[in-house]
Amino acid sequence: MSQPPPFGLMAEFTEAEPMTKAVRRARAAGWTRLEAYSPYPVPEAAEALGVSAAPVGLIALAAGAVGAALAAGTAWYVSVHLYPVNVGGRPLNAWPAFMPTTYLVAILWACAAALVGMLALNGLPRLNHPAFFARGFERAGRDRFFLFLSAEDPLYDAEAAARFLAGLSPLRVSEVRGA
């Protein structure tokens, strides 16, 4: 049975600062396909990776506006054209009566779109990833920090990448194999 192809190399660090310095050095060396994993957010590492804020807020705002417009439009159309009932002498298109449902539908659409947008932008759900099988990677959620260099990067040469990562003083460097 043959081994799966290499997916990349993973360097393990015990603290956030050395990992952040490693990310900066990797970017300065020209690496473009790299990822950092940590048990808590490290804004400096995200900045060094060039990660920008996801537009989840804009997605939620747009979906909320569309949901509100549809709810208000539907309530107006039903009240004025499909089922016109004069209640207490109010006009058929009394918009204040439509506001509670319009508001609730807008919130519902915004929340649903924020969830779906966040999952899509993060590439989730991803139930299996070769990085999950890197040596010691289970500690990424507890107390370890990892820098991953992908084999898809144009600079990737297994030996040169291993030397580069070893020069960053990690706890260990391990090879990650694809599926």
Automatic annotation (TrEMBL):
It holds the Pfam family ActD. It comes from the Bacteria. The chain crosses the membrane at residues 56-78, 98-121. Keywords: Membrane, Transmembrane, Transmembrane helix. InterPro entries: ActD (IPR021776). This is Quinol:cytochrome c oxidoreductase membrane protein. It comes from Muricoccus pecuniae.
